[in-house]
Design goal:
The complex is a heterodimer.
Chain A lengths: L3 E10 L2 E11 L4 E5 L6 H9 L6 E6 L2 E2 L10 E4 L11 H11 L4 H14 L15 H14 L4 E5 L7 H18 L2 E6 L2 H7 L2 E6 L2 E6 L1 H6 L4 H6 L4 E10 L4 E5 L4 E4 L9 E6 L5 E3 L3 E10 L3 E8 L4 E7 L11 E5 L6 E4 L5 H5 L3
Parallel strand pairs in A: 3-8, 3-9, 6-7, 7-8
Antiparallel strand pairs in A: 1-2, 1-4, 4-5, 9-10, 11-12, 11-14, 12-13, 14-20, 15-19, 16-17, 16-19, 17-18
Chain B lengths: L1 H11 L1 H24 L1 H7 L1 H9 L2 H38 L5 H13 L2 H12 L16 H27 L2 H9 L4 H30 L2 H12 L4 H4 L3 H14 L4 H28 L9 H7 L3 H31 L7 H35 L4 H15 L2 H15 L6 H27 L2 H9 L4 H30 L2 H7 L6 H10 L3 H32 L1
The chains are: A alpha+beta, B mainly alpha.
């Protein structure tokens, strides 16, 4: 069974540690995304699964088998590269045929398999084209067909969409998920784009500084982030610093820097604990009373208007209002902000400071 | 300050720049290309002389054809050996990380700094069967053909490794990794993906090695002459194209009737080299190696276990035994030989003369080569620039001995040579070293994104400033590389020098050739060592100076 397991993986490059203590299990047929800012060690991780590099410590298991010493070509993985890496001297068909040819398939299969996968990515009519004659999106589709045609049951996608135009990227996202699900493949997809991760995955592994921060389904990662870094990196959020005043059964009360008391979910904090309150922009609403603030910036976004304010507690807060709303907002206006107590999530205030804790490196 | 501004303004004026470009191109055509191929005109003006003394003389014709056939055969064999022995080493240098990589990197270039005259002597002493062999020498070769092949491999090998490594550097390693994720073993991936991508770049290495072997004179002469002194008679009658020119040139000083034959050999060599350049280029571009087929099982087996180690090991063994040890065997020789008195005064004079010559030549190359390189790389869209680009290669391809004959004819047509020897030598050496500087600099300039210079211009720099502040720092390394190549090439050159001034030419390599030809082995060995050491010290100094500068900036 093509499940992938990483046990206690550590990878060091000289003095730099690119991965530390990675334990991860990917089930057969699961679509997992490894998400994280650039340089967090996510590519290193799938390169170790592929066998392009060997871990310094720990084990990679594929289908329960220890992969130590097993060369790339015997790991039965398909790899789609960020820079696409279609062989420039072969046309699309030649590229897709490469796997079956080097795997010594018989003549009939070498004829048939590549056509089947080119058909799957809807490029059969362009099979005589050379990579330089194809558009970026088409190239990446051919490279996907090439990886699939080699018969791999595990597909490793290394930022497969980041070299493409925004529009093509969107379309290909859905294609990727559709095709791999249809074929029942196990997929490990690496990306730094949280929106991409949300839309394609069964499960997201969020990484930072070579460590796994949190692993969960896209919904849970967005709605119930367990970590301040997750809350900030997946989706957008406002972070307000304060001190817990009181924790009740149905809510927590937090006192902000100016003394205003706001509500959040019930929590395990004790009164007097330093906390950070995370509240997503779409959950903040203007009202007749609440946290006082002055509008500093207004941005028209199409379907909504993003308003950025400075609160009386000296926090920066963003919130969105519908374009169709009647009320007129102007820079310098005073507004009062409220949110439902269920929307605010509390985290312990990190000793290194909030900015340090959400920094991308 | 003000005067400098005025000067700058003058230099930046459009008219001046046009005139300057014209001057640079005219220099190139008149002093580099024209003299190189001038000898061809001799075939038109003096066809009668050639047809009477050469074409109708079957014995002379036989000697000529033999020499040229030998030259070709040697060049082909050497190039093939270089490719197969050089590829694994180039691969190691680019694709692998191991301890001692830097050392390997330096070792490969070492034979380049040894003048070929010294190489020829060193390799001959190491290989040739000797009744009383020097300790540690192999002393196994008695065929002049094999000896010359071995010798030519020594000095062309670094060129092959360097150019293969340069192409390999350009080819993204991801392609190979991609091939392996698709199920290809290391060997299959390298053979079916990386090698086909090599093709265009392969031409450079092949042409360099081929023409170096075709053109080499000094080392070959010395090796053959050493061989015949060691009692191998076959070496006496053995000749390559360039050594034939050298021999006949010596004779023609006393017997002018050799001139038509000399001209004829030179013309043949020049024309054949140029034809070959074109043919090789086309062949490499058009020729499809049978690389599509795969043999998964055997190749898989060859990709692991002992085989890759065996391949790397034998490539390194080749490097050590065939290239490095013969290059530096001369040190062992001098250690064990019986010392003899030598005429140091004349050698020191020759050494000084050679350095002065090489120095002046390098300065001219840089002063006039950089603007030319800039011109051809900045006017890529023009046809004329393409033509110039091709023409630059001509002096590199043409055997220097033939070039020397051509130059002599060219300049003696204009006036008497006596008293102007140094001047003529400078021009001759400029002709065959100039392309080295131009090639290096043009290659580097083309690599650099023009937007850097454009940015500098938008920030208010004039063309001179943007060159000095932006482009120059970026291509400095290549300028240095070109200068070192030109300098060492000039320092070690024998063929053209001898073709112009004969055996009495006062340069160090010719001096060594003369010593070997008069059987003064010990003195020749010592002279070689001094030449090697002085060249090395000089190169190290140059490197040191330029490195220091870099830190200051």
């Amino acid at each position: 069974m093509p499940e992938v397991e990483l046990r206690g993986i550590v990878k060091r490059f000289g003095k730099v540690t690119a991965s530390r203590d990675i334990d991860l299990k990917i089930a057969d047929g699961e679509y997992v995304t490894i998400l994280g800012p650039s340089g967090c060690g996510k590519t290193t991780l799938i390169r170790m699964i592929a066998g392009i590099i060997e871990p310094s410590e720990g084990k990679v298991l594929i289908g329960g088998r220890d992969m130590e010493g097993v060369p790339i070509e015997e790991r039965d993985i398909g790899y789609v590269f960020q820079n696409i890496a279609l062989f420039p001297h072969l046309n699309a068909l030649g590229n897709v045929s490469y796997g079956p040819v080097v795997r010594n398939k018989d003549r009939k299969e070498v004829e048939e398999i590549p056509r089947r996968y080119l058909e799957l990515v809807k490029l059969l009519d362009r099979m005589k084209m050379f990579p330089s004659e194809l558009s970026g999106g088409e190239q990446q589709k051919v490279s996907l067909a090439r990886a699939l045609a080699s018969g791999a049951k595990i597909l490793l996608l290394d930022e497969p969409l980041s070299a493409l135009d925004a529009r093509v990227r969107m379309d290909l996202r859905y294609e990727l998920r559709r095709i791999t699900k249809d074929l029942g493949l196990t997929v490990v997809h690496v990306t730094h784009d949280q929106e991409e991760a949300m839309t394609v995955s069964d499960r997201i592994v969020l990484m930072r500084n070579g460590r796994i921060v949190e692993t969960n389904t896209p919904e849970m990662l967005y709605l119930e982030p367990k970590d301040l870094f997750t809350a900030n990196f997946v989706g957008e959020t406002n972070l307000l610093e304060g001190v817990v005043k009181e924790v009740l059964e149905d809510r927590s009360l937090v006192e902000l820097r100016d003394g205003t008391v706001v509500e959040a979910r019930p929590s395990k904090f004790k009164s007097g604990d330093a906390v950070v309150l995370s509240i997503r922009p779409e959950r903040v609403h203007p009202a007749s009373e609440g946290l006082g603030a002055v509008i500093r910036c207004i941005t028209f976004m199409g379907t909504y208007i993003r308003i950025s304010v400075e609160t009386d507690s000296e926090d920066r807060v963003n919130f969105d209002v519908s374009t169709s709303e009647d009320r007129d907002y102007n820079i310098g206006d005073r507004v009062d902000l409220i949110w439902s107590k269920r929307s605010g999530i509390l985290y312990p205030r990190p000793p290194e400071g909030v900015q340090e804790a959400i920094k991308l490196e | 300050m003000k005067r400098q501004d005025q000067l700058l303004e003058f230099v930046n004026r459009k008219g001046f720049r046009k005139g300057w470009s014209a001057f640079i191109i005219a220099f190139f055509l008149l002093f580099v290309v024209l003299p190189t191929v001038f000898v061809v005109t001799y075939a038109i003006t003096d066809w009668d002389a050639i047809s009477i003394t050469v074409l109708s003389n079957p014995k002379t014709m036989a000697i000529i054809w033999d020499a040229i056939a030998v030259s070709f055969a040697i060049a082909v064999i050497v190039t093939v050996i270089d490719f197969f022995a050089g590829l694994p080493v180039a691969w190691m240098l680019v694709r692998k990380d191991f301890r001692g990589k830097e050392l390997l990197d330096t070792l490969i270039d070492m034979p380049l700094a040894v003048p070929t005259a010294a190489l020829g002597f060193s390799a001959a002493i190491f290989w040739v069967v000797d009744p009383s062999p020097v300790p540690l020498s192999l002393s196994i070769i008695s065929s002049p053909f094999i000896l010359i092949v071995l010798l030519h491999v020594v000095f062309s090998y670094p060129y092959m490794v360097r150019s293969l490594a340069a192409i390999l550097e350009e080819i993204d390693e991801t392609y190979e990794t991609a091939g392996r994720t698709l199920g290809a073993s290391r060997l299959t991936a390298a053979r079916t993906i990386t090698l086909p991508l090599f093709r265009a770049g392969l031409a450079t290495g092949v042409i360099l090695c081929f023409s170096r072997s075709m053109s080499e004179t000094g080392g070959t002469l010395i090796a053959l002459s050493t061989m015949s002194s060691l009692g191998i008679v076959a070496a006496d009658s053995f000749a390559t194209g360039p050594t034939l020119i050298a021999d006949w040139r010596t004779l023609s000083f006393t017997d002018p009737s050799y001139t038509p034959a000399l001209a004829f050999v030179s013309i043949l060599l020049i024309i054949l080299s140029l034809v070959l350049l074109v043919v090789l280029k086309l062949l490499i571009m058009k020729f499809h190696l049978p690389l599509r087929r795969v043999w998964p099982m055997p190749e898989k087996m060859l990709s692991r276990g002992i085989f890759p180690k065996l391949k790397d090991g034998s490539a390194l063994f080749f490097l050590a035994m065939i290239v490095l040890v013969p290059s530096f065997f001369i040190f062992t020789y001098v250690l064990f030989a019986t010392p003899q008195a030598a005429e140091w005064d004349s050698f020191i004079f020759a050494l000084g003369y050679s350095f002065l010559l090489a120095g002046i030549v390098t300065i001219i190359d840089i002063a006039l080569g950089i603007p030319f390189a800039l011109y051809i790389s900045k006017h890529r869209e023009k046809r004329s620039s393409h033509v110039l680009d091709v023409l630059v290669n001509v002096p590199l391809i043409v055997p220097t001995a033939a070039l020397g004959i051509s130059l002599t004819l060219f300049w003696s047509n204009i006036g008497s040579l006596s008293g102007l020897e140094f001047f003529i030598l400078v021009l001759a050496h400029v002709a065959f070293t100039y392309p080295l500087v131009v090639r290096n600099v043009a290659g580097a300039v083309e690599e650099i994104d023009p937007s850097y210079e454009e940015t500098a211009r938008t920030l208010g720099a004039n063309p001179m400033q943007s060159f000095r502040r932006v482009l120059y720092p970026l291509v400095k390394g290549s300028i240095l590389a070109g200068a070192i190549m030109a300098f060492t090439r000039s320092l070690g050159e024998t063929g053209a020098t001898q073709a112009i001034l004969g055996n009495n030419a006062p340069t160090a390599p010719v001096f060594i050739v003369a010593l070997v030809q008069s059987d003064a082995f010990f003195q020749a060995g010592l002279a070689c060592i001094i030449l090697i050491i002085v060249s090395y010290v000089f190169m190290l100094m140059l490197r040191y100076i330029t490195r220091k500068r870099k830190e200051v900036i």
